[in-house]
Design a protein that fits this description.
The chain is mainly alpha-helical. Helices cover 69% and strands 0% of the residues. The protein has five helices and no strands. The chain is elongated and about 85 Å long.
């Protein structure tokens, strides 16, 4: 971003000029300041910047998205963050697997019962 155009959300929050090679600009646009606020609150701007710089450019958008999601969930739930969601989903998978096993057992039982009745 040039210094004359709108600053990214990170540079606005940090009250600094947004250079054309700002590491935050592509991932924290000025129209979504809450996204950067959460990331800054949880990870810190310096840590986030260092992480993004260490990644290859093609991986940065996904990393920023993941960190933004984790930070937002951590702000909502400071103790568990997105771990609570992951745990809930794992429980749902376990319940579905148990239900599937039960249904398969019932199918086998009915097939065996039908075969026994046919003899």
């Amino acid at each position: 971003m040039s210094q004359n155009s709108t600053r990214c959300a990170a540079c606005k929050y940090l009250r600094r000029r947004c250079s054309k090679d700002c590491i935050f600009a592509p991932y924290f646009p000025s129209d979504n300041p809450q996204r950067f606020y959460c990331v800054h609150k949880i990870f810190g701007a310096s840590t986030m910047g260092k992480m993004l710089e260490q990644l290859p450019p093609h991986s940065r958008a996904e990393a920023a998205e993941c960190m933004s999601y984790e930070a937002a969930k951590r702000v909502q739930d400071p103790v568990y963050g997105c771990v609570r969601i992951i745990d809930h989903l794992q429980n749902q998978i376990l319940e579905a697997q148990q239900e599937l096993a039960k249904t398969r057992a019932e199918i086998v039982f009915h097939i065996a019962q039908a075969a026994w009745a046919a003899t």
